[in-house]
Every structure is written in C-alpha cells, then in structure tokens.
Design brief:
The chain is mainly α. The chain has a domain of 40 residues. It has 4 helices and no strands.
Length: 87
C-alpha cells in the first residue's frame, strides 16, 4: 500500500487539486483504511485458532500441489530436439 499512497498524489497534482481538499480526502481515506485494518486485526486476534484451522489445510494442499508439479516436471523432462547440453 505505500506505493499506492505515494502515487495517488501524482494525479491529484496534475489535476491541480487544491491542497486542503487533498489533505481532507487523504485523511478521510486513511481513517477508513486504518479503521478497517485495526478491526481486521482485532477480529483475527480473537479468532486465530479458527483461522489456523481453515488456512493450514489450504496451505498444505498448495504446497503438495506445487511439489507434485515440480516432481512431475523433473521426471518427464526431455531436452528439445536439436539442442545440445553443454558440459
């Protein structure tokens, strides 16, 4: 998000947005965004066990899928015709 917050001032400047309007909208947006993040953090802290129960199997499944794909690629790899492996 730091990149987005930095870049948003460019179009505001190019459109000659008044300084105090920019400050007001930036402060309002920051208030909404930070309130959301604080609320999400509070919710996550009280539900961390439940979140872990939901996310752990998904992360494990993704890891196993990536590992299986990688092993399949290694086991079925063949050089392209006409290319030479250099030593």
């Amino acid at each position: 998000m730091p990149l987005g917050r930095t870049l948003i001032s460019l179009p505001a400047g190019m459109m000659a947005m008044p300084f105090w309007s920019f400050v007001l909208f930036t402060a309002g947006g920051s208030l909404v965004w930070n309130s959301f993040l604080v609320g999400l953090g509070y919710w996550m802290e009280t539900n961390i066990g439940r979140i872990d129960e939901l996310i752990a199997p998904v992360v494990t499944a993704i890891f196993v899928a990536i590992l299986a794909w990688y092993l399949w690629r290694v086991l079925t790899w063949k050089p392209r015709p006409g290319t030479r492996l250099q030593r």
